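Side project, low priority. Logging it here so it doesn't get lost.
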Amino acid sequence: MSNTTVLEFERPIIELRKRITALLEIESDTGSDLSASIDQLRRQAEQLQKQIFLNLTPWQRALLSRHPNRPYCLDYVEQLFTDWLEIHGDRAGFDDAAIVCGLARLNGRPVVVIGQQKGRNTKENLKRNFGMPRPDGYRKALRVMKLAARFGRPIITFIDTPGAFPGIDAEERGQAEAIARNILEMATFEVPIVCCVTGEGGSGGALALGVGNRVVMLENSIYSVISPEGCAAILWRDRAEGPRAAEALRLTAGDCLRLGVVDEVIGEPAGGAHRDPQEAIAAVGASLAYHLDALKGMSGAELRADRYERYRRLGEFEVANADLAVSETAPAQ
């Protein structure tokens, strides 16, 4: 994957790297010793990168989560899993390419892998519908998850979608029901489920693959009920207010970890996963293996209860009226 897309806040780093490349070419062509200047620029680039990436805003992380050179689901499949066998179709006449499903092995362990898949060019994005599944995709995913439950295989999901497709055809075929059905069914399976947010975790489109015993996120991924632009369009009638909405949504991996929405934040290579996809994929693989190992000693009933308790713990509430609180807890007369 070539790194051709440069985000605005990355430009100072890229400019320094271009100067380093130019000096290396001059050194090679002329035989001059420019090592001191090259080393100085490398230190500057490293220091600048640390400074920028330690202080990223939620909006900048949202932009990183969408970077077209980040690893996608099939990249993880190719590098982490063996014996991959893709399964197609929802058995109702459709096969949504925005979700890929299949049987595989992770470190020799039989698993089922399900994930949203984006494209890297216009043709692929049209095929994959920009990673926005229709109900057919969620029904295909559910069919494969039921297969995993029947044969006792752990389920691994990769979440990377702006959201479920909101088109008329998707609504006509029951988009909301398909998402709700997946959430309901995933809560009941008696096999380990580990969910990984690798890019965008958008709205119900993400939740339909997100009910797990463990949920992990890459450092520069996001997880939110709505995209920043969508939120801004609703609240301020202006999608350009996306950066403002991103601050309010608490959508970063750090926010989600503090709120208990996810169980682990997986560190990314310096400069983001798109700068070193192989390192990012290896880190995800180590995390998946760790969590599956932690869950393997639990019975089916314990796995289901663990998943239930995990989601019951999410969120907080306060009773504003003390008298009401007393009356609610008092025994019936």
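Brief comment: The chain is about 50% helix and 15% strand.
Revisit when time allows.
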